[in-house]
Structures are given as C-alpha cells and as structure tokens.
Design goal:
- The chain is α+β, with helices and mostly antiparallel strands.
- 48% of the residues lie in helices and 6% in strands.
- Strands 2-1-3-4 form a four-stranded antiparallel sheet.
- Strand 1 and strand 2 form a beta hairpin.
- The chain starts with a strand and ends in an 11-residue tail after the last helix.
Amino acid sequence: MASAWYYLENDNRIGPVEHKEIERLVSQGTVTAKTLVWRDGMDGWEEAARHFGIAGGVSGPPPVPPRVPNAGTHSSQGRVIGEVANGVGAPSLYFGAPARGFAEAISVCFNKYATFSGRASRSEYWYFLLFSGLVGITTGLVDMAVFGSDNNLSPINLIASLVMFLPSVAVGYRRLHDTNRSGWWLGGFFLGFLASSVLIGIIGFANPNSRDEFVGLLVVYVAAILIYYIVLLVFFCQRGDPGANRFG
C-alpha cells in the first residue's frame, strides 16, 4: 500500500487507508482541513488541506505548536523535529523519538545511560554511534602516544570502551523500539554470541584432533553472525513508526 495514508484523530494514529477512503472521510467531515495526515515519503505530518480539496484550508505553513525552552526546531513544513532531552516537550511526529542533532544525541544518550525503555530516532542512534567511534579512535591514538605503538597496553581505550558500552546498547534497544521491535533483537544477539562462543570453545577443546570439523563449525558460526549483523543494520536504518507504538 505505497499510496496508503495515516491520519490523526484525538491524538490516535489511524491507518493505513487508501486515498479514496480519505476523500470519503473528507466528504463526511471526519477528516477536516486541520487534520494531520501522513504517508510514506513525507517528512512529517501535514494538514489535510495541503493534499485534499477541503474548504477552509490554509495556504501557508501550519501554526507552530506550543513550545518549551530548548525543545528543538521546526522544519519548513512545520514538523516538530526536536524535544527536550528528558522526552517531555511539544508533541511531535515521532512521539518519544524526535530527530536529534549531534550534540543533542550525545547528551540524550548519556542522560539515558542505562535506559532500555522508550524510543530513539535514527539520528539519535547514528550520531551516538559516530561519537562512540570517534572516542575509540581518539583514545587509541592517545594510548599510542603515551605507551608507544609497539606496546600492547591500551588502558585509556579500554576504559572509554567500557564507559561507552552500556549507553550504546541502551540506544540500540530504543532504536529497535522505534521500529516497533523488541530490544531483544539486540540483547539476544549478545547472549547468543556468548553462548555459541563458549560452545565452540568446548567443542574445540574436547576434540583437538578434529581440525576440519572445527573449522567448518567456525565458518558457519561466522556466517551466522554476519547475517545477524546485516539484519540488525537494516532494522537500525529503518524509519521509525509515525505516532505512538507499543513502546512509546
């Protein structure tokens, strides 16, 4: 249903419905000029008057919603794209998962250091992932400068990795929630990785002479991890649910 529409009624998302059905709702007065509508390909909710011939429509952008200090900014089409860091602010297209800037994403993720509930937008997740990578590179270079490139010690990088681990996993959970998926897609990966690593180690130790079987098992293990990574990557790149879902 590529042309399917969603509309808001009493802050509830309704849809998907076909274009003709929306036109019928317009004729009945259920969908008015001010009703917010959305379909795939749009940046955010827009008033129905922009897409359907409704008397009393507006010719300019919709009114700016009530704002709180530091609540973010609006796009040229009136979409709320920010929210205060604790998740309380003006209503937005993605309830609980507004778009974030680089600095805001870092601040939010550290404020929600071990918060596995709620949702995180794509920008929040990927900006924090970028920040984590930059921290890893920087601390690695510092370790090389302090301890030398021939030394295997990397204490600063190790400490930074430990600090960044929990908020990185937490924002991953929230990003999955934003796509209406359980965070256990990520948590199950870590548990499966740990269990399978232990199992392969036991098999290799118990059968030291069966090298070919062990290598074959290891190849299957690596292939399974790679497929899982690709699946998670697709999930993390997907657009979040417009409006509320079962996670917020």
